[in-house]
Fold this sequence. Notes:
transmembrane; mainly alpha; elongated; transmembrane helix; 0% strand; membrane
Amino acid sequence: MLSFSRPVSLRDRIPAPSGAAIATTAAVGVSALAAGAVSYALLRRFAL
């Protein structure tokens, strides 16, 4: 059994992501979703 002399909560150990990081991640996700939708539509349209 481990015993810690100075326990630190997990929230204190992991830094919160900045607003710019969240915005960048959201933009990349939306772009990937749009690219996938366009690819799917083109494949359906031109499939033999």
